[in-house]
Design brief:
83 residues, little secondary structure
């Protein structure tokens, strides 16, 4: 079942609740782990092993997931999840 709220990394509507309430939620499309402390675009995210949101977005565009080793777990967005 698709979410209603966009992932801050890939933009797909996979989050079941707003990102502020999605504690430790991992997007099934890009595998970004939501950081409720919202460090910002260019600050390291502890939940994502120090990766910044900007780096995560760039990796998703290039690879299809935030890290190459996560590709086997990532899935394509459902039609209703596209931003």
């Amino acid at each position: 079942m698709p979410g209603k709220f966009p992932c801050p990394c890939c933009g797909c509507k996979t989050f079941p609740v707003p990102k502020e309430d999605a504690l430790a939620y991992i997007c099934p499309v890009c595998l970004w782990e939501n950081d409720v402390f919202d460090p910002g675009e260019d600050q390291p995210s502890d939940e994502n092993r120090g990766m910044t949101l900007a780096e995560g977005r760039e990796a998703y565009k290039k690879l299809g997931a935030v890290r190459e080793e996560f590709l086997k777990y990532a899935r394509k967005p459902l039609p209703e999840e596209f931003p």
